[in-house]
Structures are given as structure tokens and as C-alpha cells.
Amino acid sequence: LLCSLCVSLFCIAQPSNYNCSNGIIKFKSVATLETIEAESRDLRGLISTGNKSFALTVLIRTFQGFNSPLQREHFNENYLESHKFPAATFEGKFIEEVNFEKDGNFNARAKGILTIHGISQERLIKTNVSVKNGSIKITSKFTVLLSDHNITIPKIVNQKLSSEIEVNVETYFTRTKN
Q: Residues 9, 55: contact at Cβ < 8 Å?
């Protein structure tokens, strides 16, 4: 999956390309009876500064945390079905101007396709882009509705699992060698 994202970004001549191999993505479900939190430190990504495009991917099974091992098992087997849908991806472009070659902070919206549980949705997500010493840090906080990605909550656990999940992303990109 990451290879196909790489090919789509690098087929077009670009001034600079950046990659991330250990970004952090966290999620939090705050429900009436329980709060569930997990994170993955295996978020991978690419940025092509020439056309302001990007691609991010995370393998679902890399999420750690949860309140119990059984909860993690249910997350992978019953809700996200990671055996059928092993990755979540976000691929798109930055809408606002971001000068990737000059130190500074930029608020930029990322417009693209978010795919979770095999369901793709167009999203517009606010991000903060920080460029410093040739590296790029991108942070974002947004929500995901489970219903948008065909993830159902059994009635028996509907007070333990929120239908709206908070997501936080923190990535560090470094220039690739061309």
C-alpha cells in the first residue's frame, strides 16, 4: 500500500520530497461508561512539496494501549477488522500556501481521502505545519465518526464506545535523498 502511494507521489517531478517513518497517531473514545485510548508510533508518510501533496498510512494492528488485551483484540477483530482492512490512509494536498523551504509555522487545511475500514471519505482537516532547519513537523486534531466508515457498535457496548472518535496526529518529516 505504501509503495503504491510512493509511486503516485514520485512519478511527477518534484523539487523536494520528505518522508516520515515513525509518526504518532492517537485516538480516544470518550463514552458514558468508559474512556478508551490507544496510539501507534508507526505512522508512515510522504510529502511532495512541488504540488503540496501528501500520503499517510498506519497499520491498524500497530495500535497499543486500550484498557485490556481483550479490548485490543475486539478493536482489531470486531470493529476495524484489521485482517480484512489492514491499514488506514489519508492522501491529498495542502490547500493553503506552505513554504516548505523556509522556517516558519503555517496553518493549512489538508484536503484528501481518508480511508478507514475500507471506506473512503473526502475530508478537510486543519493542520499545523512547522518548518525548521529543513525538517517538517505536522500536527492535527480531528474527529472521525464511526458511521462514516461503516463501523458498527453493538448495543451491548454502546455506552462504553463513543460513536465519535478523537484523533491526534504528530509527524516529523525529513528530506529524502533524490
A: yes
Note the pLDDT tens digit of each residue in 96-147: 988 888 999 999 999 999 999 999 999 999 999 999 998 999 999 999 999 9
CA angle 86, 89, 30 (to 5 degrees): 85
Angle at CA of residue 59, ends 57 and 62, nearest 5°: 130
Q: What does the block give as the cell for 3? A: 509503495
Task: Check: CB of residue 48 under 8 Å from CB of residue 22.
Answer: no
Burial of 136 by CB count in 10 Å (0-12 exposed, 13-18 middle, 19+ buried)? buried
Task: Give the integer Cα–Cα distance in Å for 114 and 159.
Answer: 26
pLDDT of the residue at 178: 56
Report the DSSP pairing between strands 135-145 and 53-59. unpaired
- Whether the CB-CB separation of 106 and 99 falls below 8 Å is answered with yes
Residue 146's Cβ-side half-sphere holds a number of Cα atoms within 13 Å equal to 16
Here the cell at position 118 is: 475500507
Would you give the end-to-end CA distance of the chain in angstroms? 21
Check whether 166 has a pLDDT greater than 80: yes
Query: Residue type for 70, please?
Result: L
